[in-house]
Amino acid sequence: MSMTMAAKQARGKKQNDVIFAASSAAQSDIKLNGKDHVVNGTVGSILDEDGQIVFLQSVKEEYLHLPNNEYIAYAPIAGLPEYLSAVYKACFEDAKPDAYIDAVATAGGTGGIHHLVHNYTALGDTVLTADWYWGNYKTICKDSGRILSTFTLLTDTNEFNIDSFKEEVMHLSKEQENLLILLNTPGNNPTGFSISDTSWNEILAFLSSLVASTTTKIILGVDVAYLDYAGEKHAVRQFFKKFSQLPKEILTVICYSVSKGFTMYGQRLGAMIGISSNQDVIDEFHEINAITSRATWSNLCRPAQRTIANLVSDDKKFAAYEEEREAYNSLIHERAAIFVEEAKSCGLPLLPYKGGFFLTIPTTQSTKICDALKEKHIYVIPLVKGIRVAACSIPKKQMKGLALSIYETMKELHSL
Asked: For the Aminotransferase class I/classII large domain, which residue ranges apply (predicted)?
């Protein structure tokens, strides 16, 4: 046995990063054969039609012309007040809930997920999410001594599976005092699925009934990382109003990220926005999460906060930013539409895409299929239950014919 210095709970930590491995293989192939001959569907950032990573010009101009002190000085632990005000506007637009609301800056949307697990569940507790989820949810739970459990996201007709959701919530509510539920919508990673208004009504009615008849407290974490690319900006935000005046035993927390909407992935900035009908709950929300921030990363990137504060508070700049962002939202949806239409034509199975960066092909043989696709210079991500295709980064010219190529490969492997 090899020697270890790690504490018992930290021993054996290892991660097989399939996304990094696939991306590295794609980059090596591009160096050998040129980018026009390689389909790189591994990148989770917006690339333009020439394959270059997008930095919105409106954001770039603001970021590069800040005064020196804004690049150098610390930011407050909870975030610049002007930044947090900007977050409310950028996140909610005209759909701000009627409730007590507060926000704390976080390291991307990931930081908000971390704080929810750390502060609203106990050691050994189970966190609930859908069976199609971002893999880092499991990493965060496991690293924090929690367990991630899932409900079935979709019915056979590709609707939100409210029955499975209710069953799992009821089971866990009997086992623990607090139940943290993580829902990644709109534009779920990896499927592109979004919860409908009707399903939201069912979810919230059920949870409200549950807390009225039991001692369970519900923390509803809504990961909106792909909000700005999930559809028309006002339409995709209307569900926020549904969090108005919920029972005090339900705390809703929006995990908001500036990585995608403002194309500032590496700045590691976001916010967690607490929504409750009870002022005490929101006061506590601010205090405990700010302290956890202090204990985790101290404070966050000031220049990125100031950039967003300046952009959003200036009506002219904000309008220019939204126009620019909307152009890329449209581009991603155009790319996805090409793939969806071709998948339908050739019979390639596909989960329902409503928006966001990714589409997903359901299969239990993803590794074998992705390995075979590499031989055709096509690089996509193998998941436990499917194959993820990045509409955010594959140019339209390479989207054409891609669904058919994947279909033919699956047929060759008898994997349909």
From this structure: 42-403
